Amino acid sequence: GFFLGAIAPCPMVKQLESRENWLKLASVKNVCNNQVIQADLTDSLESIAQILVINQANYVLLFENLNTQQEAIAQPEHIPTPLWIVTDQDIVNYWTIGLNLSTIKAKSVIDRSLPAIGPEASLWSAQKSMEQWQTSALIVSSDRGEFMGVIDRASWLKTLDPAEMYRTMLQLQQNLESKTEALDRTNTDLQ
User: Fold this and answer.
1) Nearest to 154 by CA among 52, 26, 32
2) Residue 96: is its pLDDT beyond 50?
3) DSSP run (H or E) holding 5
4) What is the pLDDT of residues 34-65, one digit of tens each?
5) Exposed, middle or buried, 32 (CB in 10 Å: 0-12/13-18/19+)?
6) What DSSP line would sit under 145-182, residue for residue?
7) Is residue 62 within 8 Å of residue 26, measured between CB atoms?
8) Cβ atoms within 10 A of the Cβ of 7, count?
9) What is the pTM assigned to this prediction?
10) Do the Cβ atoms of 138 and 150 come closer than 8 Å?
11) 51 touches 39 (CB < 8 A)
12) Phi/psi of residue 56, nearest 5 degrees
């Protein structure tokens, strides 16, 4: 037989391209989490780790002189702009290098400015900023610097519709089977 060509799942490539396009077109404000977990700059990293576990959260926002009577979870309009963000990834990194989490205060690990992004920025930009800052979450703030919420990788990954992805996979499988059958018929005809 002769080699006629190869079948590649082109619709899958187009689907991946559309996901990339979706990340470039979708804005941060659409997936911004406006319920935030908060802690004080004077809290120990161990205390922050406990807050993360209790709230099943990926990050906690740090504030100066936080009212200890205030709920750990708050809406952005009720809190000032945070000074820093500590992620679960940060806590693991500090523990891995041997820091004593019970004695280290949150304020002692702040070593750079707060990573932030605007609400109109694309999810693609947010992903690139997370890579640049080596973090899994970013503060979302307005042009005037007002705190609006947080975006993390989990928040925008949740927006992918599993039912739609399943339908697409079924369609790809059917297209591939159809093209395979057509190629087999063509190969049989040529022999």
Assistant:
1) 32
2) yes
3) none
4) 777 888 889 999 999 999 999 988 888 888 87
5) buried
6) --EEEEEEHHHHHTTS-HHHHHHHHHHHHHHHHHHHHH
7) no
8) 13
9) 0.61
10) yes
11) yes
12) 50, 50
